[in-house]
């Protein structure tokens, strides 16, 4: 397993050497436990790439983030492909983007990396608050850490991000090259959500109202979402202004309702929204709730097949309607 | 809830069936609770969840959407497509603690004046029981 | 000014006295998020923490604030300032966040005297709490601050184990002390020595540093068109975390909100990282991409602000680095700038 770093770098070097590739999107280590997204443009750059359980960022967002400005006169559009590394969940975002015609398959070179789950960095930072240089290697169920020269082993289960401990798709579903060995799938269950559904409206609102009240509306959950790529977002519209800019419980709640609803049958569960939230609001839980309903009611799962039609643009005459008068 | 609480209900009715159904209730002099304020939309498929949420923010205690029966949509499948959307937004709203009574959907055809009355009566009574909308209401 | 000491077991009495006569804001932890909240119970206030998630700036410059109300086309009751509220005390401000108030004072008291901010500022006493456990991304010493920097604060408490060392820094702080004088004993010379050596010790724990403010200001003047910006800002997601959690970011937007014929003019925080921030009514956007927006944020902090007010608009609290979901590490970026 130790040579995964070499495999990653080799894969990236081959991709970046292609004439039709603009850059390779990967991860590079930052200060302490942090890992940054990185745009490798040369063979030399690819030496800085790594893959480890600290690589949480879903790089798919960078496929649609670039602003499309009018080209200067006589300039030609750069039609070269983008190569990017994808973990299992990230690959579903790529599939969903292609299915929605957000990007086309031939604009991409997909480098798949099987992933055994990524780590909740804040948990490690709490354990090692002054870490400067960190190496993390996955060894089965353990994470072997080298923090400033000292080696440590930590059971992975304790520090995994929540979405990863229930991951059904550790292996990329779409790729041009697969780098590394395939990982064991886990089974997903919606235990927590089913339990919460049983509560009374009052109990539910006590929980969520408290969470929404502290939202600062930085829109990180929207901006980091690989599937929130509308050119003009309902949150920014002024006329009509569906959501006021003032920060209070009513507007914050509506913001989360609409954000979640706009991802119905599209959210692929990469959990980036939840990871990005500086206020610790479990926004991903709302997405998981709808994911569960979509599965149960419509037997639909987004991000699996690039030919799939979107959930809300199709129907079956026998769809359930037991709540309708 | 205090006894003199009168629910404020916004009903979005589709132009071809439910609006005509409400019209029929009127011409047939069937009386129904006056708590409902009707907004006509061309099809239940026109309904954006923002309409529902925005009404609840602006002081509605409940929202009703009514359209043609499945299979009878003027635009062939508008209500089928809408139905999925309604199911999911309802589930989501319930999940954060908005009472299920606040968001209702019904199918009322142009000939069902009596049913329209029954729907309005039921929705009004249910909301009267649970009281004012508090979760989404805007503070002024 | 004079220094005092407060036995540790009487620290809560001090908070009780503050709660009685003033509105007390103190750091409170909930779901691992630390923010400054109005407290009614001294037990709710945190004394041991590295720094809050959300800086205390929102108490003086609320994220959403009603400027005035109106009905129809009438402004009801003219432009009304917020009602005279009780004197407010913010307790447990880290020295970096305290310095931030001093920095923000410049903009709110500049060519236009902002009555809302200044009124609150005048009736608020800022009680600082020296740092003893800096977080890994703290770099206040590079920005003329330090674990027990006094700027901007009215009082500063330092934890000396069995007692707190209290320095009164302004008249406002003096008045607050006099109200509670009996809780405090005069500090001994040995206390002062102990405090100073503690500050040095804590300072040595800070591992991250950048070049000095003056160098940065000069250097950035030459870098406006450098390709460095484009490459660096590619990673930026354009969210508002870095600006909303920044103790010195002070931009706002104003909008009218009308419901049922009644309305209010509200001002709310705005972020230069948003596309709408510079979007004109015509559709033109002078900062069309994340490159310009990202560059502007850094230029504002390290170049334009010191050009205007002779002080850098950054205190080195490290929040932007800590919370950036794309790990745009400000300290690395500033270090890179130094190398160009």
From TrEMBL, chain B:
Alphabetized GO MF terms: iron-sulfur cluster binding; metal ion binding; oxidoreductase activity
UniProt keyword Iron-sulfur present: yes
Domain F420-non-reducing hydrogenase iron-sulfur subunit D: residue ranges: 9-131
Keyword terms, alphabetized: Iron, Iron-sulfur, Metal-binding, Oxidoreductase
Pfam family, one: FlpD
Stated name of the protein: Hydrogenase iron-sulfur subunit
Source organism of this protein record: candidate division NPL-UPA2 bacterium Unc8
Automatic annotation (TrEMBL), chain C:
GO molecular function: iron-sulfur cluster binding; metal ion binding
Residue ranges annotated for the 4Fe-4S ferredoxin-type domain, each copy included: 226-257, 305-336
PANTHER family tied to this protein: ANAEROBIC SULFITE REDUCTASE SUBUNIT A
Key words of the record: Iron, Iron-sulfur, Metal-binding
Keyword Iron-sulfur: yes
Domain of life: Bacteria
Name of the protein described by the UniProt record: (4Fe-4S)-binding protein
């Amino acid at each position: 397993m130790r040579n995964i770093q070499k495999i990653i770098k080799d894969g990236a070097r081959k991709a970046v050497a292609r004439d039709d590739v603009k850059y390779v999107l990967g991860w590079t280590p930052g200060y302490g436990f942090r890992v940054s997204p990185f745009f490798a443009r040369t063979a030399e750059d690819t030496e800085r790439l790594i893959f480890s359980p600290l690589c949480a960022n879903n790089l798919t967002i960078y496929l649609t983030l670039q602003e499309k400005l009018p080209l200067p006169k006589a300039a030609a559009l750069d039609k070269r492909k983008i190569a990017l590394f994808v973990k299992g969940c990230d690959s579903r975002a790529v599939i969903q983007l292609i299915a929605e015609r957000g990007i086309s398959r031939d604009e991409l070179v997909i480098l798949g990396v099987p992933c055994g789950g990524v780590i909740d960095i804040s948990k490690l930072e709490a354990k090692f608050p002054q870490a400067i240089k960190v190496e993390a290697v996955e060894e089965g169920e353990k994470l072997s850490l080298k923090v400033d020269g000292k080696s440590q082993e930590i059971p992975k289960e304790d520090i995994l991000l929540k979405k990863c401990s229930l991951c059904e798709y550790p292996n990329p579903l779409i790729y041009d090259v697969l780098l590394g060995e395939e990982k064991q799938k886990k089974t997903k269950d919606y235990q927590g959500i089913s339990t919460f559904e049983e509560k009374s409206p009052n109990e539910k609102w006590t929980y969520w109202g408290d969470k929404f009240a502290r939202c600062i509306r930085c829109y990180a959950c929207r901006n980091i979402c690989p599937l929130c790529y509308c050119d003009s977002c309902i949150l920014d519209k002024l006329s009509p202004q569906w959501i006021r800019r003032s920060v209070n419980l009513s507007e914050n709640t509506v913001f989360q309702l609409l954000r979640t609803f706009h991802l119905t049958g599209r959210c692929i569960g990469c959990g980036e929204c939840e990871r990005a939230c500086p206020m610790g609001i479990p926004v991903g839980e709302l997405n998981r709730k709808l994911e569960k309903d979509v599965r149960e009611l419509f037997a639909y799962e987004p991000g699996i097949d690039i030919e799939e039609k979107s959930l809300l643009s199709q129907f079956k005459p026998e769809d359930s309607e037991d709540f309708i008068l | 809830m205090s006894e003199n609480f009168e629910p404020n209900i916004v009903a979005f009715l589709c132009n071809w069936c439910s609006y005509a159904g409400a019209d029929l209730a009127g011409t047939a002099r069937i009386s129904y609770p006056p708590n409902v304020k009707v907004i006509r939309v061309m099809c239940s498929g026109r309904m954006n969840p923002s309409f529902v949420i925005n009404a609840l923010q602006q002081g509605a205690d409940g929202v009703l959407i009514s359209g043609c029966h499945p299979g009878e949509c003027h635009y062939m499948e508008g209500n089928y497509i809408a139905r999925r959307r309604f199911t999911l937004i309802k589930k989501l709203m319930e999940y954060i603690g908005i009472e299920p009574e606040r968001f209702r959907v019904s199918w009322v055809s142009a000939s069902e004046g009596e049913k329209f009355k029954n729907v309005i009566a039921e929705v009004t009574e249910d909301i009267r029981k649970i009281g004012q909308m508090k979760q989404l209401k805007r503070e002024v | 000014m004079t220094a005092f000491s407060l036995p540790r077991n009487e620290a809560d009495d001090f908070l009780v006295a503050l709660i009685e006569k003033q509105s007390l804001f103190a750091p409170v932890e909930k779901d691992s998020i630390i923010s400054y909240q109005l407290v009614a119970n001294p037990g709710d206030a945190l004394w041991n923490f590295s720094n809050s998630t959300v800086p205390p700036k929102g108490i003086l410059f609320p994220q959403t604030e009603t400027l005035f109300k109106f009905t129809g086309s009438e402004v009801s009751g003219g432009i009304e300032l917020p009602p005279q509220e009780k004197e407010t005390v913010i307790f447990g401000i880290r020295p970096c966040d305290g310095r931030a108030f001093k920095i923000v004072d410049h903009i709110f008291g500049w060519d236009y005297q902002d009555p809302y901010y200044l009124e609150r500022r005048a009736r608020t006493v800022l009680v600082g709490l020296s740092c003893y456990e800096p977080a890994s991304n703290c770099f206040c010493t590079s920005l003329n601050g330090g674990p027990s920097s006094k700027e901007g604060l009215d009082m500063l408490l330092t934890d000396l184990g069995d007692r707190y060392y209290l320095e009164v820094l302004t008249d406002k702080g003096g008045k607050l002390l006099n109200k509670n004088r009996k809780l405090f004993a005069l500090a001994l010379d040995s206390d002062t020595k102990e405090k100073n050596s503690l500050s040095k010790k804590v300072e040595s724990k800070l591992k991250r540093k950048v070049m000095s403010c003056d160098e940065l200001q000069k250097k950035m003047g030459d870098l406006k068109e450098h390709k460095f910006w484009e490459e660096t800002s590619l990673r930026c997601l354009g969210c508002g975390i870095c600006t909303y959690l920044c103790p010195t970011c002070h931009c706002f937007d104003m909008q009218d909100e009308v419901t049922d014929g009644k309305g209010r003019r509200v001002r709310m925080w705005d972020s230069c990282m948003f596309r709408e921030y510079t979007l004109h009514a015509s559709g033109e956007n002078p900062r069309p991409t994340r490159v310009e927006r990202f560059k502007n944020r850094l230029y504002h902090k390290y170049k334009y602000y010191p050009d205007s007010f002779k002080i850098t608009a950054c205190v080195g609290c490290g929040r932007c680095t800590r919370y950036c979901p794309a790990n745009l590490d400000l300290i690395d970026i500033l270090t890179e700038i130094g190398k160009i």
